[in-house]
Amino acid sequence: MAMDLTTFWDETATVPPALTQEFIQQAEQQLGVRLPADLLALLRQQNGGYTRGFVYPMTRPTSWATTHVPFDELFGLLPSDTGATSILDSGYLTQEGGVPEKQVLLSGDGHWFITLDYRHGSEPRVAWIDTEMDEDVPVADSFPAFLAGLIDRDDLPDDED
């Protein structure tokens, strides 16, 4: 089932500056990749911030949990003067934070990240990268597949929070 984009974002969150087509072009040039259309659709609706509170079910355990990875936030495409973590921080964190090359960071806390993984070509997969635990785990074959697989955090069994 496709993700309902109209209910993706946390309604109580502060809304960041709107995303412009010009900034998308600049960002893709800076990152050296073409961003997935579904990602850009979400960022046009709201340019990053807290989601409604999702997890992605995993068949392989990670440092986060045995059954899922979190997706509580989606970074926006924001200029550096906003002070918020941005998808554009991917280059810096790749160089300084131990993130493998060809990753575009979507969410994370500085130790772990959900990324668009471009190591296999121009159509990215989604990966879980934990730099402290040296984990590099495939999550989904594409960003649309990742979105389709997200579930509400509240739908996890009680012992899996």
UniProtKB/TrEMBL annotation:
Gene3D superfamilies: SMI1/KNR4-like
Superkingdom classification of source: Bacteria
InterPro entries: Knr4/Smi1-like_dom, Knr4/Smi1-like_sf
Domain Knr4/Smi1-like, first and last residues per copy: 18-149
UniProt-recorded name of the protein: SMI1/KNR4 family protein
Protein species of origin: Hymenobacter ginkgonis
